[in-house]
Amino acid sequence: MRILVSATFIALPLMALGGCAGGLSKDECLYADWQAIGYEDGARGAPASAVSSHRQACAKKAGVTPNMSAYLMGRDEGLIEYCQASNAFTIGARGGRYYGVCTGPEEGSFVTAFQQGNQLFALRNDVARAENALANAEKRLQEINHQIDHAEAALISPATPHLERVDILADLKNLNEEKQRVKRSFGPLRRDYELAQDELADYRAFLAANGPYPGALGVTSAGY
C-alpha cells in the first residue's frame, strides 16, 4: 500500500491563481466591497498575488484601485476558514491544489491533511485507469471478433473476387495475431486492476483507523 503522508513526499505547487478576478465589471470595480472580495479569495485558498488580477481589471475598466487594507483584512478572515485540516483533506481528495497560503501553527496539519486527501484521490484514479484499460481491451477484443467474422464471411462468399480473397487472408492473419495479443493482456490488466482496488481498500482502512479529519468523513466513502 502506498501511503504518503509526510510533508517531505509531496511538493506543493505555489502557483499564481487567476480565478474570477478578471471578470469584475466596471460597476463592480466602482462599488466593490474589497473586504468581501478578499474574504472570498482567502476562503478559496488564493495567494495574496490574486489581488493583482483585480487591480489590473479595475484599472482598465474603471480607473480605480483596490482598497488593499480592506482586501487583506477580508483575505485573512477567509484564510481562517480555508486553513482547516478537514478542508485540506477534502481539497486533496477532490484533486484540488494547495498554493502555500496557510502559515503559522496550522500549516503542518493542513499540509498533512491535504496530502492524505490527495493520496486518496491518486489511488482512486489508479483504480479508474486500471478499470478503463481492462474495459478498453475487452472492447477491442469484441471489435476484432466482429472483424474476423465479417472477413471470414467475405472469404467464403462466391461473390468475392480471387485477388480480394488474398487481401482478406492477410487481414485475417493480422487480426488473429492481434486477438492473441489482446487476450494475453487480460491477465496483467486484471492483476493491475485488482492491485489498484486492494491499495485503495487498504488506504481507506488506514484512514478509518487514523482519522479522517472532522468534517471530511464523506470523502472516504465509496463515492471517493
TrEMBL record:
Keywords noted in UniProt: Coiled coil, Signal
Keyword Coiled coil: yes
Recorded coiled-coil stretches: 120-185
Presence of keyword Transferase: no
Annotated signal peptide: 1-21
Protein name per Swiss-Prot or TrEMBL: DUF2799 domain-containing protein
